[in-house]
Every structure is written in structure tokens, then in C-alpha cells.
Amino acid sequence: MSLPLSLVPAPPRFTKVPVDQIGVSGGVVSFVCQATGDPKPRVSWNKKGKKVNSQRIETIEFDEGAGAVLRIQPLRAPRDENIYECVAENSEGEVNVNAKLSIIREDLLPGGFPNIDMGPQLKVVERTRTATMLCAASGNPDPEITWFKDFLPIDPNASNGRIKQLRSGALQIENSEETDQGKYECVASNVEGVRYSSPANLYVRVRRVPPRFSIPPTSHEMMPGGSVNITCVAVGSPMPYVKWMLNSEDLTPEDEMPVGRNVLELNSVRESANYTCVAMSSLGIIEAVAQITVKSLPKPPGIPMVTETTATSVTITWDSGNPDPVSYYIIQYRAKSPDSKFETMDGITTTRYSIGGLYPNTEYEIRVSAFNTIGQGPPSEPVETRTGEQAPASPPRNIQARIISQNTMMVRWDEPEEPNGQIKGYRVYYTMDPSQPMSLWQIHNVQDSIITTIQSLVASETYTIRVLAFTSVGDGPFSDPIHVKVLQGVPGQPTKFQVGAVSDTSMELTWEPAFQKEGIISFELRYKEGGFGSQVTKTFGPTASYVVEGLRANTEYYFSLAAISNKGIGAFTNEISQKTLQAKPSAPPQDVKCSSSSSTSLLVSWRPPPVESQNGALAGYLVRYQAVGASATQPTDVSPSPIIQQCKWATVLLTMCRSPFVSGGQCGAQ
């Protein structure tokens, strides 16, 4: 039966042997020796067959005595120059190895002897941070840099990548630990010798911070049966454990207690309770409470009471109807009509509010609801109220007048679209001179009717009539004027006189007769171009529309119309105006000029067509050009003062047009 390999006794064997070294007088050298065997060997150093024993020569053991560093500092020549022996022994045997030390005075050093150009400096680093100990050396050949900590060699390969020696020679220690604290030396060596830097201490500072809450738990209000997650986060150094408690009951199992962060999940919550987050470390214990309040939606407030109304506003007050505080109130209101929808005003924090922007003389329905942290509760019972009156906002509609006797006319109209209250009556203003101020017109008051007669008119004269409505608050605006001629049997002023289809040379006009069976035999149309053009008169048979042709493009025209019967011509309508559409220019650009700007380009310039021929806003120009003798022209869209590029120098025919006219010219070399 054989023993396992690991239990077989073995004599010592060196795993790291010292090398000969050349030091500088007053400097430092270290011989490193390490062995393995079973049982584990013990390593020692001899000089001339005797144990080394001096204040300047120190043996530093490592690897439980299986390794030892012989450090000599400061070096003294010639007494330290010698052969040093490393001995490794166990119960199975003994082995030894020698290393030679040579020492050179500083003033006799060879030119390539290593020199420390920059050594490590005192450094303080927080635990887990990265520390970098700097080192730079020179020599010939370039020296190799190694590091010692507390007189022992550093092997970066034994740190799982946490300790690295950079290409610059610096030593980088990542995720620093308390065991990294110590005295560091940078060692530069080449064939000429070895030199040590001055030692520098690295201190690893361990932060000790008692726990504190970085995200304390927050309180919540919720509906019955609701769910919520409560997050609690604590920090410190060392990081604290975090758990949840309900009264004295631990909600987090001790063997599952997380570090730093704990989320409490609550489902189907029916009762209010206080949940405590506890954070604990070796430096202390802290607590924070989250209140979970189970609430319901607020109750409806009391029925609103109207305390004040105007034509455009209503002021209401109400009782909260809720024993618990509410966040704010929401008012909903609408006009009482089949198609109206509620409008909403929220964020109201008082129990009294004035609703503005309402329509006069309109009945409204108003209700109030409360809002708390859970949501909006049901609305109160509605209150109904009517806003106050105002003067009418619009004039009477469809004003018509008709002569019914030698000096009497009948006037009728429809109610205003926006009466803003109960119409108390109407005022009919009439005059033979519409240029006078309204205060000098004659007034005929009418109550409870939309038709009236006005007597004592002057025969054969034309009257202008305007009507307004009034409420108990005041008068509304005037209607547009209408005209009537006091001549019995003469047709009334045509109504709904307006422009229909429009083109650049024509307009369609439409209208309706003032009354049926007026015996109209023709119409007379008067129109003029602009405010000061000469008047043109057209007469045509009975119809409800007419197309005026032969008009100028982009020009405003003014029109008025009167009906004619066998008894004579009636009153003309008020003037209406309309501009014809734009059209193509009817004349070419003026003063076309051309000059050379280079051997391959021409500069072409011009003035726009005459204003009366532009027929609208000019959008641009089209320039056509060709070399003389060529078969085709080349077009280009340009802006004013164009330069035509890539044209070989020659006599060039330029064609410029804004259809339908064309202007051309020639340009030669100058």
C-alpha cells in the first residue's frame, strides 16, 4: 500500500534562489530565498558558515519560515562584501545555495548604474479605492523595476489581478484593503547593480459611518383592498442590514435580511397600520416609520347655495360634507340645454367660488365634488340658477321695409340672435340724410312686436332705416342700414345681396327680392372699380343672380342693386365690395438689359411690368436664352438681377416672358 503523493516525505527544494547583487555603498540590498518540502522546511542565512548577526543585517521570514529575506542596510565596504549562504532544512534533509554581494562607492559607480528618478511618496487612500505608488528609474541598460512591501518582495501575479505593475514602473493597487497598508520601496536593477528608493508609507483609511436612511420609507393613503410597495434604503460603513417590523413582529426573516435596501410588499390592505424600517450595523441601529392609511373617496358636499348673480357670473357657497380634510373641490357647470356638456374648474381650496365667463340670461346647472388623496368623490345635488340680463349683443335680423300708401311704410324684422335677456322693445331709426349723426335721426319706438308702420313720410324720397333692440338693462347694437323709396308700387330694396363665384375677370352676384309679387320687371346694377372709379350701370330682366364680366384682375369692385317695376325704381342696396382673383401679367418686364460679367456668364437685369398690368403679386420670372443659331432655348426660374452661368461667350438671344407677351433682345461681346 502506497501513501498519497501529498503525504510522501520530501527533502527541501528551492523554489526561489538568491542572485548575486552589486550594491552602492550606504545603500540597500535584499537576498530572497524560499524552499518547499515535506515537512515544510525552515530557511536561514549564514555568512562564513555562521548565522548572520548584526544591527545592519536583518532576516525577515515569510511563508511560515519556508522563505527568508536577508536585508543589509546600510551597505559597508569591504566588510559586507562576501558570499552569503541560504540554508533550507527539514527532517528529510538539507540544501544550501550561495549568493555574492559586491559593493561600489558612490563616486566610483559606472555610468549605467541604476538611478531612482522618482520614488514613491506618502499616500493615504480610502478603503476600496485605487492607490498608485509612482516609480521611475534610469540606467543602461534600462533597469528592471520591482517592489518591496515591509521588506518583502511583492508578487503581482499572486493578487488575482488586484495589484498590477504598470509599464511605467508604478504599482497600482485596486480595491485597496487594510492589509495593503505598509512601507513600500521601489527597486531598480540591471547588470551594473541595484538601487533602492527611499521607503514611502501607504495608509489605507477605513471609513466608519453609522447607518442613515438615504431613502426613508414614505407613508401612503390608499383605498381598501389596495396594494403598495414601500422601499427603505440605508447606507453606512460598514453597510447596514435592513429589516421591516409591524409593531414587535419581525416581517423579515433574520437569515434573509438584505444589506442596504429592503422593499416591503403589501397586498389587499384592509386596515391602517404603522410599519417600521430598521437599519443596523456595528455602529448603531436606526428606525423610520411608514404610515399606511386606508381611506375612501370623499363624500359629496352639500347642495351649493347661490349667493350672487350677474349677467356673466354666479357666486356659490357649499358645505364640505366631509369630516376628514379634502385636498380641493371640483365645480362642474353647464347651460340647461339638451346638447350642453359640463365644464370643469378644479383646484378650488375654499367653499365659496365665483364662476365667470357665463352667458347672460341663461339657466345653468351647477354641482360640486370633493377630491382627496384617493381621488374624486361623487358630486353634490345640483343647484339651478339663471344669470342676469344684459343689453342685446347682436342687432335685429332680416330688416325689411315696404311702402303701403302714399306716405306710409311698413317695417319688419326678426329678433336678435343674442338677446341677452327679455326684449322689452325696439327702436326704429329713419332719415332721409344718412350722413347725419344717429342722434338727429327720427325714432319710432315699438313694444311687443316685430312689425310696425311709420307715417308722414315725404313722397318720392329715399329713407335709410336702422333698428335696435333693448332690454331692461339697455340698448343693443344697430342693424345694418336698409333703404326704401317712398313711392307706392315701387319694389323694395333687394335682400341678401352678396358675392358668389369670383374669377380674375368676372363675379357672380346673388340676391332675393324684398317681397313676393312686387311686379319686378328688371334690376339695375351699379358698380365701379375701386373707391374712385367711374360708375358702370347694367340693367337686366327679373332674376336672382347676375354675372358681371370684363373685369380687371386683382382689382376691388363696389356693387349696389335696385329693383324696377312699372311704377319706377326702388331703393338701392348698401354697397358690397369684392376683389377679383389674380391673373397672369398682361405685359412683359420693362427695360431688359444684358452685360457680361465674365467669359462664361451674363448679367441680365430688368424692371417689373407696369403696375396696372401685373394683375397680382409677382412670384418670380422665367428667363429663356440660347446661343444664336442654336435650335432650342434653355429656361431657368430666377429672381431679380439674375446671372446666367455656363454660357460660352457669343452673341446670345435672351427671351424673358410673363405670358402672354414676350420681349427679347441681343447681347454681344464688348
UniProtKB/TrEMBL annotation:
<dbReference type="GO" id="GO:0004725">
    <property type="term" value="F:protein tyrosine phosphatase activity"/>
</dbReference>
<dbReference type="InterPro" id="IPR007110">
    <property type="entry name" value="Ig-like_dom"/>
</dbReference>
<dbReference type="InterPro" id="IPR036116">
    <property type="entry name" value="FN3_sf"/>
</dbReference>
<comment type="similarity">
    <text>Belongs to the protein-tyrosine phosphatase family. Receptor class 2A subfamily.</text>
</comment>
<keyword id="KW-0677">Repeat</keyword>
<keyword id="KW-0904">Protein phosphatase</keyword>
<feature type="domain" description="Ig-like">
    <location>
        <begin position="12"/>
        <end position="102"/>
    </location>
</feature>
<protein>
    <recommendedName>
        <fullName>protein-tyrosine-phosphatase</fullName>
        <ecNumber>3.1.3.48</ecNumber>
    </recommendedName>
</protein>
<keyword id="KW-0378">Hydrolase</keyword>
<keyword id="KW-0393">Immunoglobulin domain</keyword>
<feature type="domain" description="Fibronectin type-III">
    <location>
        <begin position="395"/>
        <end position="489"/>
    </location>
</feature>
<dbReference type="InterPro" id="IPR050964">
    <property type="entry name" value="Striated_Muscle_Regulatory"/>
</dbReference>
<keyword id="KW-1133">Transmembrane helix</keyword>
<keyword id="KW-0732">Signal</keyword>
<keyword id="KW-1015">Disulfide bond</keyword>
<dbReference type="InterPro" id="IPR003599">
    <property type="entry name" value="Ig_sub"/>
</dbReference>
<keyword id="KW-0472">Membrane</keyword>
<feature type="domain" description="Fibronectin type-III">
    <location>
        <begin position="493"/>
        <end position="583"/>
    </location>
</feature>
<dbReference type="InterPro" id="IPR013783">
    <property type="entry name" value="Ig-like_fold"/>
</dbReference>
<dbReference type="GO" id="GO:0005886">
    <property type="term" value="C:plasma membrane"/>
</dbReference>
<dbReference type="InterPro" id="IPR003598">
    <property type="entry name" value="Ig_sub2"/>
</dbReference>
<dbReference type="Pfam" id="PF00041">
    <property type="entry name" value="fn3"/>
</dbReference>
<keyword id="KW-0675">Receptor</keyword>
<feature type="region of interest" description="Disordered">
    <location>
        <begin position="375"/>
        <end position="396"/>
    </location>
</feature>
<dbReference type="InterPro" id="IPR013098">
    <property type="entry name" value="Ig_I-set"/>
</dbReference>
<feature type="domain" description="Fibronectin type-III">
    <location>
        <begin position="588"/>
        <end position="670"/>
    </location>
</feature>
<dbReference type="InterPro" id="IPR003961">
    <property type="entry name" value="FN3_dom"/>
</dbReference>
<dbReference type="Pfam" id="PF13927">
    <property type="entry name" value="Ig_3"/>
</dbReference>
<dbReference type="Pfam" id="PF07679">
    <property type="entry name" value="I-set"/>
</dbReference>
<feature type="domain" description="Ig-like">
    <location>
        <begin position="114"/>
        <end position="203"/>
    </location>
</feature>
<feature type="domain" description="Fibronectin type-III">
    <location>
        <begin position="300"/>
        <end position="390"/>
    </location>
</feature>
<keyword id="KW-0325">Glycoprotein</keyword>
<keyword id="KW-0812">Transmembrane</keyword>
<feature type="domain" description="Ig-like">
    <location>
        <begin position="211"/>
        <end position="293"/>
    </location>
</feature>
<dbReference type="InterPro" id="IPR036179">
    <property type="entry name" value="Ig-like_dom_sf"/>
</dbReference>
